[in-house]
Write a structure and sequence with these properties.
Blueprint: E1 13-20, E2 23-30, H1 38-45, E3 50-53, H2 57-61, H3 82-91, E4 96-102, H4 128-138, E5 142-147, H5 161-168, H6 172-176, H7 181-185, H8 192-202
Parallel strand pairs: 3-4, 4-5
Antiparallel strand pairs: 1-2
Length: 203
Amino acid sequence: MLKMQNSKINLPEISREITVNHFTETKTARLGDQRLPIAVLQSWQEQAFGMFIHFGMSTFDQDEFSAGDKPASFYAPKALDVDQWVRTARDAGMKYAVLTAKHVAGFCLWPSQFTDYHVGKSGDTTDVVNTFVLACRKYDVKPGLYYCLWDNHHKFGSVTPSDVMAWKGVSLSSANNQANPHDVLRAAFTTNEANTFFLNQIK
């Protein structure tokens, strides 16, 4: 949905050896390559049953595609119990859990050193990402993290799908009802400055 503006980021090639279920595969790829070896994809598929946890600023501003304009203090859980989330997943027989570490609002569920828009500046300073990963290890549930590049708070000159929808006066649901939603949202782009910010955050 998002595309880079003007130039490409040059990423070094890396080789990595991955062993899954006694099957070893060596993969040479560019850093940031999202195509995983078949063995890894099959291992994930075999997990079969898991949980996706969409928790963050949207939980409090009640907007799934938040504008990212609320202060960090607006995020203020009263009884945060990350351990209970993962324990429930384990008790239900789930093999993995994926947490939204950062969604459209741009609010980070860990104390990022690259922005002030994170839990450390909020109403509850719990490092949710770290607590989540530790709970997953405790209950033998594989942890996963979702990091959204559609970021309405850290734009660095980018145009997000939210901007395009506002300009065109359409909602995401109406865009998705088009023959090709990308035709509606193709004007969105990400600047190199934004991409550098994203890469720094996920290193």
